[in-house]
Amino acid sequence: MRVFTWLALLVALLVAPSAQAAGPVSIRIQVIEATTKSKAFDKRLAPLKKAIRGYTGAKLIDALNTQISAGSSVSLEILKRSQVLKVTLQEVLKDSVKLTVEIEKFNFKATTTHKKGEATVVVAHETGPDTALFFAVTPRL
Questions:
Q1: H or E element, residue 28
Q2: What span, in angstroms and rounded, lies between the C-alpha atoms of 99 and 97?
Q3: Cα–Cα distance between 31 and 20 in angstroms, integer?
Q4: How far apart are the C-alpha atoms of 110 and 106, rounded to whole Å?
Q5: For residues 91 and 72, what is the distance between their CA atoms, to the nearest angstrom?
Q6: Nearest 5°: CA angle at 32, between 30 and 81?
Q7: Alpha-carbon distance 24 to 125, whole Å?
Q8: Strand locations in the chain (E)
Q9: Which of 40, 74, 44, 31 is nearest to 58 (CA)?
């Protein structure tokens, strides 16, 4: 009986962390067009200015605020619907989330862990000698 009690306690301890915050997580996805030929920098992108280094101008061209649960994905059609940015919520813990961000057409896929707060992953793709697209994904716990 004692062995069973210890085993049950051990299983509870191993399973409990991932079950603590298993509800949906808010995700913000932003698509940003950046350039070196303009100084117009969208004020809504001010928190991302350091991540958009080397570019003097930037504008928000698309955004999505949604909620997803562990194991689910959300996709956003980008670049005139010719490509898809896919975000998958891999795991939800009490103080962090694990996301996979993928853009198949760019051959890009990354899994990141975000601690509680507004940690943002930013992906850049050069579209010309003076321009680039940035994709920012921010989970909110």
A1: strand 25-35
A2: 6
A3: 32
A4: 12
A5: 10
A6: 75
A7: 29
A8: 25-35, 57-68, 73-78, 83-92, 96-103, 108-115, 121-126, 131-140
A9: 40
Q: What is the pLDDT of residues 63-86, one digit of tens each?
A: 999 999 999 999 988 877 678 899
- Give whole-number Cα distances, 34 to 60, 75, 84, 134, 135, in Å: 9, 22, 19, 7, 11
Hey, CA dihedral for 111, 49, 84, 129, is it positive or negative?
negative
Radius of gyration from C-alpha coordinates of the chain? 19
> Residue type for 28, please?
R
What gap in Å lies between CA 54 and CA 35, rounded to an integer?
Answer: 9
CA distance readout (Å), 86 to 55, 96, 121, 135: 25, 19, 13, 11
Give the residues of the chain that fall short of pLDDT 70: 1-22, 81, 118
| Nearest Cα residue to 114 out of 3, 27, 22, 1 | 27
| Reported pTM | 0.77
CA angle centred on 55, ends 132 and 37, rounded to 5°:
85
Q: What is the dihedral of CA 78, 128, 99, 95, to 10 degrees?
A: -120
- 93's tokens: 């813990």
